[in-house]
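Need residues for this backbone.
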């Protein structure tokens, strides 16, 4: 079974969750595709997809999987090297890591200018994981998903009550696959895992939660 996903969610959330799922279902093989672009269900690149937008028109079944939050983060090294950040006006003196606008695979990713008007980014990438490491190395500030940054004590949230971005993930598959047992089992598990981790995904907790998995 192939599961396509956005890069950060796939690596930081789905990978550990699906590893636990497979412990209980060793007969279900898992191919996880965490990529910084859309995975096509119509071209059969994946059996299940987790996306930032509802699926394209066609013979698909989908549901809203969860909401998640992103906040502005800096590393301790960055804060030691650059002027202090006390208000949003202070951000004018700082540098940011962000997406490359014309190469971002979804408009939902272009949140920097809306969250921090006038922000200047001279370190850009199509990869949120690259942005994560750029911020971690003290090269820039970055707006990152809380599920990626909050568990890492090396990151410090900046103006956490003022700079908050909320987005959603959608779970989808083709109609002809939805009733297959392996798809139903994984689908139900992913929904349960997302529900159990609502606080974690919204940045209200730093620890991932686990759900009981019935063995097969």
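Answer:
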């Amino acid at each position: 079974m192939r599961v396509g996903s956005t890069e950060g969610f796939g690596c930081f959330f789905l990978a550990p969750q699906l590893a636990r799922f497979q412990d209980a279902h060793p007969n279900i093989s898992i191919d996880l595709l965490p990529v910084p672009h859309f995975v096509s269900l119509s071209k059969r690149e994946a059996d299940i997809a987790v996306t930032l937008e509802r699926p394209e028109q066609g013979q698909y079944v989908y549901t809203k999987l969860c909401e998640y939050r992103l906040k502005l983060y800096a590393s301790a090294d960055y804060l030691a090297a650059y002027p202090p950040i006390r208000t949003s006006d202070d951000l004018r003196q700082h540098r940011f890591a962000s997406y490359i606008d014309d190469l971002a695979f979804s408009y939902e990713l272009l949140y920097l200018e809306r969250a921090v008007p006038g922000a200047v980014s001279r370190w850009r990438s199509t990869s949120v994981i690259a942005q994560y490491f750029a911020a971690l190395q003290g090269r820039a500030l970055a707006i990152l998903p809380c599920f990626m940054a909050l568990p890492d004590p090396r990151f410090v949230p900046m103006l956490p009550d003022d700079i908050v971005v909320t987005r959603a993930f959608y779970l989808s598959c083709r109609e002809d696959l939805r009733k297959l047992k392996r798809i139903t089992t994984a689908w139900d598990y992913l929904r349960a895992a997302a529900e159990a981790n609502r606080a974690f995904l919204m940045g209200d907790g730093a620890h991932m939660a686990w759900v009981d998995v019935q063995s097969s």
